[in-house]
Design brief:
Elements: E1 9-12, E2 18-21, E3 29-32, H1 35-56
Antiparallel strand pairs: 1-2, 2-3
Length: 57
């Protein structure tokens, strides 16, 4: 799969951790304890969403 660059909005949560969302890729929501973990999860979610969109048109 070719690389795709997405803009992410990352928020620090009051209860701790971070939340990542993207206006460019609907459905992308990722939450992690650290910024690095959140970005890693967001990358996996984005990959799976794109694969699903390609499979289902």
């Amino acid at each position: 799969m070719p690389e795709v660059l997405l803009n992410l909005k990352i928020e620090k949560l009051e209860e701790g951790g971070y939340l990542a969302t993207s206006e460019e890729l609907q459905g992308l929501v990722a939450q992690g304890r650290t910024m690095a973990e959140t970005l890693e999860i967001a990358q996996d979610v984005a990959r799976k969403l794109i694969e699903s969109y390609q499979e289902h048109g």
